[in-house]
Structures are given as C-alpha cells and as structure tokens.
TrEMBL record:
Record-linked PANTHER family: U BOX DOMAIN-CONTAINING, U-BOX DOMAIN-CONTAINING PROTEIN 9
EC top class, as a word: transferase
UniProt name for this protein: RING-type E3 ubiquitin transferase
E.C. code: 2.3.2.27
Keyword Transferase: yes
Lineage: Eukaryota, Viridiplantae, Streptophyta, Embryophyta, Tracheophyta
C-alpha cells in the first residue's frame, strides 16, 4: 500500500491541527476498510496522533523546544520540566516553578517542595511577576516569541476562565450589598457542586479573607443580612471539606470568631452550618486545639441546650470531635457540657451521639463528680434496661463503671437496680466484650462492698 506522504519528512512544524485531523481520518479509514492494511499504516497513524497531541499540549506551531535552540538562563527554567517557564509561580517553600508542572505535582498528592523536600504549610501558588517580566525581556532580546501560559485544565474541568470568574466573584464581596448577595450565593452553589472550586480557595492567598469581608465590615445599620451571612458561612463549610484547606481555613484569623458569632445569630441553617464547619475543621488535631482555645465550645454547648432539631446533630458532632483531646474536655466540662448533655439524654434527644460525648467526658474527674449529682446513675441504668442499641448499653455501663470507681455512694443505686431487675448481670452475660468487662467490674465492686459491710 502506498504511503500518504504527509508525514514522510519532519513537517510537523508547518502542519495545522485541521490537516493532521484529516490525515488521521484518512489513515483510520484505511485501517478499518482495508483488510490487507499494513503495519506501516498503523505507525503513520501513531505519528499523526502524536503530532496532534503535541500541538494540543504545547499550544504552538513549533514542536522544537525553545531550550534546544537557545540556551536560556537556568533561573528561567522550571526545576520540574527543565524548560523555559511560561507561567512562573512561587511555592510556599519560596521556590519558583512553572505553574503547569507544580500543579501536576500537587494534584498527584505531593505535599513537599520538589526542590528542597520541605513540607509545605499550604499549597497556594503566588505569581512570580518579577521572573515572568525577566523572561519576557530575555525573549525579546533573543528575538523569540514570549511563551504564553498553558491553560491547565485539571481533572475536575477548571479552566483559566473559571479562575477569572472565581476572582471576579471574590471582588464583588467588597461591592454593593446586592452584588455581595449575588456573589455569595453563587460561590455557595459552586463550592457545593464542584470540589475543584473548593480547591481554588487554597490556591489564592486572599480568597478566604475576601469571602468573609461582608461579615467583618459591620457596615449595615441593621446588622448583617441573614441570607448573606448564611451563604458565606455555608461556603466556608463547603471549602473546609477539602482536606488541603482545613489548616488554612482554621488559621485565617477571622474564621473562628465569625463561626462563633454565627452560632448565636442568623438563620437556623447558618447556625447549623457554622457548627458543621467547626466539626469539619476539627478533623486536624492542631485545629482542635486552636478552636478549643478560641472559646468555641461555650457557644456550641449553648446551641445544644437550645435544642433546635436542625442544629443538634451538627453541634453534637463538633463537640465530640473537639473533646477527643484532653484539654478540650476540661473546657467543655467548665462550660456546662455535662448538665446540658444529660438533660438532652433524659429527654430522649439524640441519645446515641450524646452518650458518645458523655463517655468521653467521663475520663475527666470533674465531669464524673457532676454526673453523680445530676441523676446520671438511674438514667443510664434505665437506658441499659430498655434500649435495644448495644453501643448505647456499652457506653452507659462504661460511664457507670467510672462513677462507681470514684463515688462509692452510687453503689447503692446500682445494687437496688441489680436486685430488682438484674440489669448489670444480664449485660455481663450477653453484652459486647467491653460491656461484659465493665459490667463484671461493677459486680465485683458490689460483692466487695457487701463483704466489707458484713465484716464490719
């Protein structure tokens, strides 16, 4: 079979994409229609595809790289590609890379500087205008075309046009009230539907402060517009879901205070989403400490006590996460968490979630003292007796075990329960492994207490 001749010589420097596509169609047709096609035709198709790919990726008519024809200064080359940089940006380590290549590095899950191996404190990429201008001047002096930045489209489909739109929305957060409301509403929808837009907040240094501008200005005579506050707080929740944003969001100075304020004001959804944002951010231990020190547990506990059905679950989740670290347990107990949680449990409100918090707080001595004075023992014994949830029974008996270790006076109530219903003995026989162990521990103490009484 005769060659088509289009790629017989190195003509990729002058062939247009449209010509390559026509050639590719012709070659594919030959392969599909001709049963006697030769392997040479397949090779030609491969070469055509490669040439088309190069044109698509590089967005230029020349396939010969600039550094092969001109020796450019080393400072103008990207350390990752070793090519002249098109869009130089500065990484958190202070090193400069071509944006296309460092984005690929970060999106592959790397969180270190590829040049220094330094762990990155954030993934924000700052344009290096100085280097870009120097590259531009050098290109002009060499009589070559200044390289245009490659429009990098990531796996979620974000384009430079999307980035420009994102930045324009942030600018509107400092405009008129109408523009702020429209921009906040759109940012809320974009960060909900497109995970890539959440990532954009981590790439732009001032994005989060710009988002929060309407909540920090306090320029409105009648206070912050409730819908605007709701949209901003919900957007903050959405971007906090992105793992790489959690540290950046929590450490932005105005974030935690504004979330705390939102817990006590605005719509029910605003308050619920503020609690959800604190829960999401508290996934990092460093954020747990930061949020606890800021005093956020008190408004969370107050909101829990208020007890709106739409807020309780998010609030409980936030308190649970924060109290994983010991210092926050002390803060929660000091802010009245034990009393509020027990009241909700007695009222049958979100018992599962609140028992999980209570068993965590029971490792703090002051919490155990409070539990003994608030009718905890009969409440928990009643749950063990009546509940069908093994996890709740396990949490209840764990708390009771801690109480009986520190307050012998509560053994009488447990003994009466055991004599009347055999509640603890039943759990020692059919409960989970942990429940059995705690139940047997209580039974042993009851026996020892009886023996001591008889001896005395």
């Amino acid at each position: 079979m005769a060659k088509t001749g289009v790629l017989d010589s190195d003509t990729t420097v002058m062939v247009k994409p449209s010509e390559l596509k026509k050639e590719l169609q012709k070659l594919v047709k030959l392969i599909v229609d001709d049963e006697d096609y030769c392997t040479e035709t397949i090779d030609q198709a491969k070469e055509t595809l490669y040439a088309l790919k190069q044109l698509k990726i590089n967005k230029r008519s020349l396939s010969i790289k600039l550094h092969e024809t001109l020796r450019c200064p080393e400072d103008f080359k990207c350390p990752l590609s070793n090519d002249l940089m098109r869009d130089p940006v500065i990484l958190a380590s202070g090193q400069t890379f071509d944006k296309l290549y460092i984005q690929r590095w970060l999106k592959a899950g790397n969180r270190t500087c590829p040049r220094t191996q330094q762990v990155l404190s954030h993934t924000i990429l700052t344009p290096n205008h100085l280097i870009r201008e120097m590259i531009s001047q050098w290109c002009k002096s060499q009589g070559v075309e200044v390289p245009n930045p490659v429009q990098y489209i990531n796996e979620e489909g974000i384009t430079e046009a999307d980035r420009d739109h994102f930045l324009s929305l942030l600018e509107k957060m400092s405009a008129t009230l109408f523009e702020k409301k429209e921009a906040a509403k759109e940012l809320r929808l974009l960060t909900k539907r497109m995970p890539s837009f959440r990532a954009l907040f981590g790439e732009c240094l001032d994005a989060i402060p710009q988002l929060l501008t309407p909540l920090s200005e306090n320029k409105f005579p009648s206070g912050i517009h409730p819908n605007l506050q709701e949209d901003v707080i919900t957007t903050l929740l959405n971007i906090s879901i992105h793992d790489n944003n959690k540290k950046l969001v929590a450490e932005t100075p105005m974030v935690i205070p504004l979330l705390m304020e939102a817990l006590t004001s605005g719509t029910v959804e605003t308050r619920s989403n503020a609690a959800a944002a604190l829960f999401t951010l508290s996934a990092l231990d460093s954020n747990k400490t930061l949020i606890g020190k800021s005093g956020a547990l008190k408004p969370l506990i107050d909101l829990l006590e208020e007890g709106h059905p739409l807020t309780v679950k998010d609030v409980a989740s936030a308190i649970f996460n924060l109290c994983i670290i010991h210092e926050n347990k002390a803060r929660a107990v000091g802010d009245g968490a034990v009393r509020v949680i027990l009241k909700k449990i007695m009222d049958g409100v979100h018992v599962d979630e609140l028992l999980a918090i209570l068993v965590m707080l029971s490792t703090h001595h002051r919490a155990v003292d409070e539990m003994g004075d608030l009718g905890t023992v009969p409440c928990l014994l009643g749950i063990i007796r009546e509940s069908n949830c093994e996890r709740n029974k396990e949490n209840c008996i764990a708390i009771l075990h801690t109480i009986c270790l520190t307050d012998r006076t509560k053994l009488n109530a447990m003994r009466e329960e055991e004599n009347t219903y055999g509640t603890i003995s039943k759990l020692a026989q059919v409960g989970s492994a942990r429940a059995k162990r705690k139940a047997n521990g209580i039974l042993d103490r009851l026996k020892r207490a009886i023996n001591i009484t008889h001896t005395a």
